[in-house]
Design goal:
Blueprint (H helix, E strand, L loop, with lengths): L1 H7 L5 H15 L5 H13 L5 H25 L1 H8 L3 H24 L5 H11 L4 H29 L4 H46 L1
Helix pairs in contact: 2-3, 2-4, 3-4, 3-8, 3-9, 4-7, 4-8, 6-7, 6-8, 8-9
Length: 212
Amino acid sequence: MFDSLLGAISDSGWTYVVVFAFALLDAVFPVVPSETSVIAAGVLAASGDLSIALVIAVAASGAIVGDNLAYLIGHRLDELVRRRLFRGARARHLQRAERTLAERGGYLIVIARFIPGGRTAVTFSAGMLRFPWRRFVAFDVVAGVLWGCYAGLVGYFGGKAFEESPTKGIMLALAIAFGVAAAVESYRFARRRRQLRARDAEPATGEGLDGA
């Protein structure tokens, strides 16, 4: 499996085009293995077959272009989605999501870039909910560059650790990437639980004050 992946991400100049295309497509269709392709390219860069600076640049560029395409799709389908999908109670969920983006939009855009599937949901929602495009671009550029550096350098240092065996290098790099993703998800889960507990405690606190 890993040998075939390294074969697909070859040492030719077309690899940069493939990495760019995968990063772009994954932002819209979250089934494309963009992160894996960047990591594999980073592993090859460790042996000198590719330029790590170019790998990071094309990965970040593809991610940014893809995120903006997802934003545009969400923006264009705004009225259609609102009419058909968000009625009654669902409309209230949409309003809540809009408030969350308004309050913590930058944080969500940057963090979601490191969550497969989550990045598409956030960028699509940002467009649909009319999150200001200039603010979106500013945060998305930061997110894309950080993601490109992260994935490319994880592959690069994994490749350096096993220069004689690129397959082991990509296995190590992917293990690190999965570990980081799990840590981010754990943090988000713990943070959500704390917020829910705080929200549940508010009425009880209010009742106690009224009673006093």
